[in-house]
Amino acid sequence: MPELPDVEGFRHVLDSCGRGRRVRRVDVRDAGVLRGVTAKRLRREVEGRRFGRPHRHGKLLLAPLGDGPVLVWHFGMTGALLAASVDDPFDAHDRVVVTLDDERQLRYRDQRKLQGIRLARTPEAVERILARLGPDALDMGRGQFLELLAGRRGAVKGVLMDQSLIAGLGNLLSDEILWRAGVAPARPARDLSAAEARHVFTAMRRVLASANRAARVPPRRTWLTGHRDDDVAACPRCGGRLRSRRVSGRRSVWCPHCQH
Asked: Taking a C-beta distance cutoff of 8 angstroms, is the pair 40, 31 a contact?
């Protein structure tokens, strides 16, 4: 599932390939990824406009088109934004193709089509979309983060993954952060000591910094992420057997020796 670092990578793709370029053509190969907009309207509103500077909030990528509408990309479970040449063969899961005035293309690729592309026509429409989300995980200060945890009785992992509280963290990032902080995912957030909460915040910032450089949650063997799908999953810190069960509705992996 694309999380904050993946979407930051997609932002770089759009910024380097699309920024300042005029949209020559929009081909909707599968309207099943459009949300609240028809293919006809998408073409009418987007073709002929130039991409401005894209920005990201949590897992959303926002692409302004001059002083006009804003394309809002939500990548769901399997979405991606790729740069391509007009001569490159299409993938079966390329759903929307934006051809630019230099003959390059931006391709929205998505296998499961759980989310997709919206068109926000006004700044107020953008604000309404963002109002449903908490602050971006990279923008949260430590005090704000500690206050958030202290007031929540649910599992700390559920708090990290709740996009209305903190935007951008998904399943892999949350498990990685809690493993590094030494906190079990099912612990009630408000039961964490001040020191434990600070460790979670510090781990979040460090994991995001490293993952953003990789434009993904990297499956490094020194990371929990690099072991969670092993046949016999062992903790890269202590070598003990990792455990796995559902916490806050998602498969969670943790080390019972290192996380309490």
From this structure: no
Residue 165's identity, in one-letter code, is L
pLDDT band at 40 (very low <50, low <70, confident <90, very high): very high
Domains of the chain plus CATH, in order, are 4-131 (3.20.190.10), 142-254 (1.10.8.50)
Locate 157 and state its tokens: 């992992």
Q: Dihedral through CA 10, CA 13, CA 15, CA 20, nearest 10?
A: -130
- Which residues are part of the catalytic machinery? 2-3, 59, 250
Tokens of 48: 């002929």
* H helical segments located in the chain: 4-17, 39-46, 123-131, 142-150, 156-161, 171-181, 194-214
Q: Which residue has the tokens 């929009």?
A: 26
Quickly list DSSP for 19-35.
BTPBEEEEEES-GGGBS
| pLDDT tens digits for range 162-214 | 999 999 999 999 999 999 999 999 999 999 999 999 999 999 999 999 999 99
φ/ψ of 163, rounded to 5, equals -65, -20
Cβ burial, residue 56 (10 Å; 0-12/13-18/19+): buried
- The set of residues, in sequence order, having a beta carbon less than 8 Å from that of 14 and lying 6+ positions away, is 51, 54, 61, 63, 81, 106
pTM: 0.96
Structural tokens at position 146:
């500690």
CA 223 to chain centre: 19
Beta bridge partners of residue 19, listed in sequence order: 51
Structure tokens at 242: 């990792």
As given in the structure block, the two tokens for residue 229 are 């799908």
